[in-house]
Automatic annotation (TrEMBL):
Protein name: Cell wall hydrolase
Protein keywords: Hydrolase
InterPro entries the UniProt entry points to: Cell_wall_hydrolase_SleB, SleB_dom1
Organism for this UniProt entry: Oceanobacillus luteolus
Ranges of residues in domain Cell wall hydrolase SleB: 24-133
Pfam families: Hydrolase_2
The keyword Plastid appears for this protein: no
A molecular function (GO) term: hydrolase activity
Length: 146
C-alpha cells in the first residue's frame, strides 16, 4: 500500500521537484527530498494541516512564498520529468524512507555547517549540502505513523 494516495500527474510533479532541488546530490539526494515531500503530505500538524496531496505540498505557500524555492525560481522544475526521477518518485510514494530524512519535514542548504535546530526543530542529519530536520517529539505524531 502506498504511503500516500497519488496519480501519475503527482509522480511527474514530484519527480520534477526532486530533480530541481537535488539533482547535484545524485539519486540518494533526490530520494531524501522526495521523502520530505511525502512526509509533508502524511503529516497533519504544524505547517502541514492543510496539505494532503503531492500537489498541495509542492505548491504550498508559507509567509507569502512557495515552500519550495524551485517553484518560483527554478527553471529546472519546469522541465519535463525524466524516467529516472519518475522511478525515484514512485519509490518514495510507495515505500522508500531513510535516515536522515525518515521523519523529516524540512531541509535546506545553509552553505555552512548545519545548525542544531531550525525554527526550533531538531537536526536529524545531513546528506551532502542538505540539512534535514524533523518535528519535536510530541508535536507531530502523524508523521511518525505515516
Amino acid at each position: 500500500m502506498a504511503r500516500v494516495k497519488y496519480r501519475d500527474a503527482d509522480v511527474d510533479l514530484m519527480a520534477r521537484m526532486m530533480r530541481a532541488e537535488a539533482e547535484g546530490e545524485g539519486k540518494q539526494g533526490m530520494l531524501y527530498v522526495g521523502n520530505v515531500i511525502v512526509n509533508r503530505a502524511v503529516a497533519d500538524c504544524l505547517d502541514f494541516t492543510d496539505v494532503r496531496t503531492i500537489e498541495d505540498v509542492i505548491f504550498q505557500v508559507q509567509g507569502g512564498n512557495f515552500s519550495f524555492e524551485a517553484v518560483q525560481k527554478g527553471n529546472m522544475f519546469y522541465q519535463r520529468a525524466r524516467d529516472t526521477e519518475r522511478r525515484l518518485a514512485r519509490q518514495n510514494l510507495e515505500f522508500w524512507r531513510d535516515h536522515p530524512a525518515y521523519y523529516a519535514l524540512w531541509y535546506f542548504n545553509p552553505y555552512a555547517p548545519c545548525p542544531p535546530t531550525w525554527y526550533g526543530q531538531p537536526h536529524t542529519g545531513q546528506f551532502k549540502s542538505h540539512c534535514f530536520y524533523e518535528p519535536q517529539p510530541g508535536t507531530c505524531d502523524s508523521v511518525y505513523m505515516g
